Amino acid sequence: MPPRRRVPESEGAAAVAAWLSAPAGADRATVATATRYTVEELSVRAPGRSVEVRVPPYAAAQCVAGPRHTRGTPPNVVETDPQTWLALATGRESWAEAVASGRLRVSGTRADLTAYLPLVT
Question: Domains in the chain, ordered, with CATH?
Fold first, then answer.
């Protein structure tokens, strides 16, 4: 299976801008592109393999420096839906609000990504 291509910056930025202008009305392709782009951006800004970020069904990546995970379920996991992820990535919602609401599920001592968010302003 060939590696998945990265979202070009211009395409990703345009998708994020479109989502920001109408979060509830964004189509599936826009949400998918914006989600992939912002998760990729996180992995660039916080390189590493100690935290797995999952935003099903569109994106997953490992990031944050620290002990590398190789088998089974990683000890540090961040998982949420695309709308919540995009709200976090753009600063429309705080980490604490998303965790308190139950829309953001985190486990592990390295799973707090507040130092890296927002990714896009």
Answer: 9-116 (3.30.1050.40)
